[in-house]
Amino acid sequence: MPISDNERAIFVKQDYRYATAIDSAVKAKNQMAREIAIDTNLSEADATTRANNELAFNENPRYFELEIEGIITLNDFIEGPLSYLLDFPEYKTENRQATVVSFSADYNTNTTVIGVRG
């Protein structure tokens, strides 16, 4: 398939492709703040959008462990990570989207403990 976009062709031919999104407030507090790299084959514009989305997603992360009925398996992640809308008023999570980052299934009790972040 021929590539018609010259800039994209140059970008894709580079050995290392990345885009950077920086939270200057965090860098001001801690110059050694961890940098997270995600390898991608996206165009430069799409890589920049993805970097900015990841930065926004991690701005105020919260982690919860929940036990749900039923078994989650790796097949449930084929189309991407599972996500839930949390509604825990005592934790101020009303309609906050959280993504599953870990899970542990118990076949004896037909339950899964999921770790959600978001």
Overview of this protein structure:
The protein folds into 2 domains: 6-57, no CATH class; 63-117. The relative contact order is 0.16. The protein is of the alpha+beta class. A 4-stranded antiparallel sheet has the order 1-4-3-2, with no helix packed on it. A hairpin with a 4-residue loop joins β3 (96-106) and β4 (111-117). The model has no long low-confidence stretch (mean pLDDT 81). The chain is 24% helix and 25% strand. It has 3 helices and 4 strands.
Please summarize what this structure is:
The protein has 118 residues and is of the alpha+beta class. The protein has helices spanning 6-13, 24-29, 44-57, and strands spanning 63-69, 83-86, 96-106, 111-117.
